[in-house]
Give the backbone structure.
Amino acid sequence: MTEYKKLLFVCTFNRGRSATASVVFSGYEEIDVASAGTHRRAQAHVTSQLIEWADVIMVMQTKHLWHLRLKYWRELRGKRLMCLHVPDRYNFMDPKLVLRLKKGVLPVLEEELKRELKMPSPKADEEQFAYAEKHAVPQSMFA
C-alpha cells in the first residue's frame, strides 16, 4: 500500500499561488492536495476542517503563517507547517511560479515520504495545463 501525504497550500486569495500549487501537485500519486486563502474574499477559505485534514501545511508568505498560528493554533498541534516565501507577484500557472513551487516543495515531500516521488506522466502535465486554462482567473479580478 502506497503511503501518501495530504498537503494544504495557503495564500491570500487562493487564486494564484496556492491554486497553482494545487494543480501542479495534484498529478503526483502519493499526494492529496487542497488549497485555500486567508482573506475573506478568497476563492476557498481556510477552515478548521482543512487544517485537521492536512498532514503538511505550506503557506506562501510569513503573514499566512501568523494568520494560521493565531486563528488555528489548536488545530495546528502536531502538524508540519512551513513557509515557502513566495511573494504575491505571480499569475495563476505562471511557469516561473511552477518552477519555484517544485523547487521548494518536492524536497520536503520526498523527506516526508522517505522516498523519491514518481514524476507525473507527460499526459498528467497536459491535463494540468488544460485544467489551468479552463479555470484561469481573469487578471481583471486582481486589479
Observations:
- The chain has a mean pLDDT of 85.
- Residues 95-113 form the longest helix (19 residues).
